[in-house]
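Input (Metal-dependent hydrolase):
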Amino acid sequence: MDSMTQAALGATLGGAVLSRPLGRKAIIGGAVLGTLPDLDVLIDHGSAIADFTYHRGFSHSLFVLAILATSLAWLLRRLGPESITFSRWWWFCALPLLTHPMLDAFTTYGTQLLWPLQSPPVAWNTIFIIDPLYTLPLLVAVIIGLWRPPARRAIATGLILSSAYLGWTIVAKQIVAARISPIMVEHHWQDDAQSIQPMPLTSLLWRVVVRDGDTRREAYVSLLDAQPPRFDTFDTGTWPEPMWPELERLAWFTGGQLSFNTRMDNTLVATDDRMGVPGHHPFRFGVARQTEDGVTPIPSYTLDSASYNGAFIARVLRRITDPSALCPADDAPEETVRARHCRP
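Output:
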């Protein structure tokens, strides 16, 4: 999730544990702890793909953060007020630190909860990286807590409302999965790789992706739709052979949800299809030079991509109630589109 949300979650949890004796200090300290794991973005790993795939690594490991929480609790017990026990200090440190990666795991990016174990990154895909309906109750609780500490009732209410909304996103995803299941069976796609993830800023509209070889099918599904979804079809390009270590790591991190294309300057581009939507994928990397002799790897670098602007977000929100407002192929590069079925 975004840094503001993580700070707000950490602040409310810190306040829930120690706002009675510490007041505003507990809320501020919780906010600091809640943002601490994301400081790994300051580390330069040497290439764009390395920076991308090592983020949410060791600093988001439940093992590492549990050890850090214990160490900080021991230090605070020695330096802080004698009336606060070690166990309370531990909960004060552990809750903001450990909930940070757990919340991140509900997004699409991928969080390595079990680092250093080489298990695939966890991405439950139930909430967009920024969702005001999750964040707002926490922010209100933080403001009240800073204004009139200890504000335990406000803090508890904020945590309950945000947690309930997070639970709702899980239910909403299951509703979408049940709605598309007959379509998967009808088209014999049930054995293909599938993913369901929320669209920007909402849990009412979802992106459904079905992959089969070099073909990717996408549809937007609103919980308010009256008609079955229609899928636009895209070409994912040809994977380079043989793969080299950096590209293998990218494939591992994304679960193989990549597309490849060659630009006019003969740069081979790898796109993370999980993040964003066609025409608005934020993570695109130059990875090699395409020549007559084959593919020559280069140090990866990040390419500019079309960001989510206000006009696009407005179309997303209109799509919740209007199926004609937005289709997957609308903003996609024409050369990647195989077939348009979203609009009959």
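The beta strands are 193-198, 205-212, 215-222, 232-235, 258-262, 267-272, 284-291, 294-302, 337-339.
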